[in-house]
Design goal:
By secondary structure, the protein is of the alpha+beta class. It has helices at residues 6-18, 20-23, 32-35, 39-46, 50-62, 81-92, and strands at residues 66-71, 74-79. It has a two-stranded antiparallel sheet with strand order 1-2. Strand 1 and strand 2 (74-79) form a beta hairpin. The longest helix is centred in the N-terminal third of the chain and has 13 residues, at 6-18.
Length: 95
């Protein structure tokens, strides 16, 4: 089986998080659209361990592309649309 590149996996995560309701199962204690998704949900969707999914989410968070929110004992991740738009504009201008 061929593995996806790390960049492809991260782009896929960002794409799923555009519409988390369409890509992830509902949560009882959180709103997917408002709060985001957990490491576990991303790991299941990617077919990787929580550690690998967490590493992807950590990179995206450190880049400012994702925001986190703690609910109960879990961290939820969602897109930072403003930061993503800023980065897109930088690349459009030729950075």
């Amino acid at each position: 089986m061929l593995r996806k590149s790390t960049n492809a996996s991260r782009l896929e995560i960002l794409d799923w998080l555009k519409d988390p309701v369409a890509h992830f199962p509902r949560r009882r204690h959180a709103d997917l659209a408002g709060d985001g998704v957990t490491v576990r949900a991303v790991a299941v969707k990617l077919g990787v361990s929580r550690r690998v999914a967490g590493a992807h989410l950590d990179v995206l968070t450190r880049l400012g592309l994702l925001r986190t929110r703690r609910i109960r004992h879990r961290t939820y991740y969602r897109r930072d649309e403003i930061r993503i738009a800023e980065v897109a504009r930088m690349f459009e201008k030729g950075w």
